[in-house]
Amino acid sequence: MKRLERIPVALVERTSLARGALPVLPQGLAWICLILNGLLPGTGTILSGLLGMCLGAPRFSARVTTEHRLLAFIINLTIGIFQAFTVLFCLVGWCWALGWGIILVKTSGKSNIFF
Question: Which chain regions cross the lipid bilayer (predicted)?
């Protein structure tokens, strides 16, 4: 599987830096991240950041650079840690992690990247 260097303009996130950090991944990997977020909140988000460095592409702009990949990893790592810690507060982190996983799956479905 080759590394994405460009993404469709329709997938570029213009409203939120955090959502732009969620990478476009192959659909199977996006499902794995969703399942991990359901089992242990934050783990799927952190994994999506790692996978975005290797296989996927962040959604900051249509052209993907190394700086975008690194920034997306740092943002996903931070968000994943916050998701894990906020599970203690009325399961907020769990709901947040599931929402993040659902966005990953929806984005991968729009990109038509499969195994």
Answer: 29-58, 70-103
Please report how many Cα atoms fall inside a 13 Å half-sphere around the Cα of residue 89, on the Cβ side.
8
What is the helix (H) or strand (E) element at residue 60, kind and residue range? none
**Taking all residues of the chain, what is their mean pLDDT, rounded to a whole number?**
90
CB atoms within 10 A of CB 39: 11
CB 88 within 8 A of CB 41: no
**What are the C-alpha distances in Å from 103 to residues 24, 46, 89?**
10, 14, 22
For the record, the structure tokens of 54 come out as 């290797």
> Encoding tokens for residue 77?
């790592």
pLDDT digits (tens, 9 = 90+) for 82-92: 999 998 887 89
For the chain, the domains span: 9-111
